[in-house]
Design brief:
The protein is α+β, with helices and mostly antiparallel strands and about 120 residues long. It contains 4 helices and 6 strands, in the order H-H-E-E-H-E-E-E-E-H. Strands 2-1-6-5-4-3 form a 6-stranded mixed beta sheet. The radius of gyration is 13 Å and the shape is globular.
Length: about 120
């Protein structure tokens, strides 16, 4: 999929495509859904830049089970279970899309199960 094609998909389709690619460990396809200046803010850290974020995703290989997805304009909110390997965490993700793809992601969850495994 070429990057310019992303403007032709809906915000929900972009987020779903991104998560499906991550679940398949198809990191090249997942990367195409992200704007170059993508930012990630989560409970345990922040990443600036799509390539930096994708390097982490390649190492962590999280798997996502979407429970509910909501769309308003260019924002997509997702409730999902994230399988982090040693723990499955219920989380909420807020994806903001722009003309170049997913611009930002904010994820919140209770970090205690992850911290207890450390």
């Amino acid at each position: 999929m070429e990057k310019q094609q992303l403007t032709l998909v809906s915000p929900a389709e972009a987020v779903q495509g991104f998560l499906q690619a991550l679940n398949k460990e198809d990191f090249d396809t997942a990367r195409q859904y992200l704007a170059d200046d993508f930012t990630f803010v989560g409970v345990l850290g922040t990443r600036n830049g799509a390539d930096v974020y994708m390097q982490d995703m390649k190492k962590m290989k999280f798997k996502y089970v979407v429970k509910k997805l909501f769309v308003q304009d260019q924002d997509v909110s997702v409730f999902y279970d994230i399988n982090m390997g040693e723990a499955v965490i219920f989380a909420a993700g807020w994806y903001q899309l722009g003309k170049d793809g997913i611009k930002s992601l904010n994820v919140i969850f209770d970090p205690r199960p992850v911290l207890e495994k450390s």
